[in-house]
């Protein structure tokens, strides 16, 4: 059996497909729309505890998807959000969904170019993203390079890795699977940043991710 990295799984053709891959249906009373409605305000609260949102602040939404949290942050505070996503289709859907001139959506490479040119953000979020990254140390380094010297970040992550993969079986048929490896994303984050606080997801607010051990971390930029 062979497997290859398959990030194209995130190239959702439309808004409904995108929502279903961002918050997968998890059974009765945990369909995508219900999870979207319950989880989004909870994550916004976690963001508010991690760092201040204000109109003059620029926030990186790393792995922004269709901009679920970018939209919530802008509506709550008027901040400016730079969404970054590996999927060009997610970026295009995000521009429609967020629908604000306080939002742009970039590829990781475009973000790197701007950071090389001097861009620094005030704060960053990466919500349900790093578990999917093939080389999360690279993504963490990218976030860190883009964060200003007093920058803060909130990460929400699953403990289990879920790397998108196309798997070819003994019949030479290719199918999609979530792959795994031994990379400890929390340990990488502790090496890269100073940890201000960390904890488990509140099971009364979003039980389906809490049950499987999802965690949050409030991080601070380290001196270079
Ligand atoms: C589960 S969705 C979460 C979306 C959004 N953060 C939210 O909570 O609504 C994961 C997103 O991360 C993006 N992604 C995966 N790997 C990435 C990478 N290496 N760099 C940037 N984005 C990535 C995917 O395209 C997808 O849109």
Give the arrangement of secondary structure elements:
Blueprint: E1 2-5, H1 15-22, H2 32-50, E2 58-62, H3 68-77, E3 80-84, H4 88-98, E4 103-106, H5 108-116, E5 121-127, H6 136-146, E6 147-157, E7 163-168, E8 174-179, H7 185-192, E9 194-200, H8 207-210, E10 215-220
Parallel strand pairs: 2-3, 2-5, 3-4, 5-6
Antiparallel strand pairs: 1-7, 6-10, 7-8, 9-10
Helix pairs in contact: 2-3, 6-7
Bound molecules: S-adenosylmethionine.
The name of the CATH architecture is 3-Layer(aba) Sandwich
Task: Compute the number of helices.
Answer: 8
- As residue ranges, the low-confidence spans are none
CATH class bucket = Alpha Beta
Biggest sheet: strands side by side, in what order?
4-3-2-5-6-10-9
The tally of beta strands, per DSSP, is: 10
Described by the principal axes of the CA atoms, the overall outline is: globular
Whole-number total of structural domains: 1
Largest sheet: 7 strands, mixed
CATH topology term? Rossmann fold
Order of H and E elements:
EHHEHEHEHEHEEEHEHE
Commentary on this structure:
The protein is α/β, with parallel strands linked by helices and 224 residues long. The chain has a single domain, classed as Rossmann fold. It is 36% helix and 27% strand. It contains 8 helices and 10 strands. A 7-stranded mixed beta sheet has the order 4-3-2-5-6-10-9, with helices on both faces. Helix 4 (88-98) links the parallel strand 3 (80-84) and strand 4 (103-106). Helix 2 packs across helix 3 and helix 6 (136-146) packs parallel to helix 7 (185-192). The chain is globular. The structure holds S-adenosylmethionine (SAM). Residues 7, 10, 22, 63-65, 68-69, 84-87, 90, 108, 127-129, 132-133, 139 line the site of S-adenosylmethionine.
């Amino acid at each position: 059996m062979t497997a290859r990295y398959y990030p194209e799984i995130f190239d959702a053709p439309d808004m409904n497909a995108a929502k279903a891959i961002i918050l997968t249906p998890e059974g009765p009373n945990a369909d995508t729309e219900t999870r979207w409605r319950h989880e989004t305000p909870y994550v916004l609260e976690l963001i508010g505890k991690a760092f201040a949102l204000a109109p003059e602040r620029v926030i990186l939404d790393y792995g922004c998807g269709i901009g679920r949290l970018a939209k919530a942050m802008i509506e709550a505070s008027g901040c400016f959000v730079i969404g970054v996503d590996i999927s060009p289709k997610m970026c295009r859907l995000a521009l429609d969904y967020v629908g604000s001139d306080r939002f742009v959506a970039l590829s990781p490479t475009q973000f790197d170019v701007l950071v090389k040119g001097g861009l620094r953000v005030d704060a960053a979020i990466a919500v349900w993203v790093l578990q999917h990254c093939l080389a999360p140390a690279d993504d963490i380094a990218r976030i860190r390079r883009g964060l200003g010297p007093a920058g803060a970040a909130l990460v929400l992550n699953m403990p289990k890795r879920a790397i998108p993969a196309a798997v070819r079986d003994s019949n030479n048929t290719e199918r999609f699977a979530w792959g795994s490896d031994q990379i400890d994303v929390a340990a990488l984050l502790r090496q890269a940043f100073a940890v201000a606080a960390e904890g488990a997801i509140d099971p009364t607010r979003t039980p389906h991710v809490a049950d499987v051990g999802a965690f949050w971390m409030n991080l601070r930029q380290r001196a270079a």
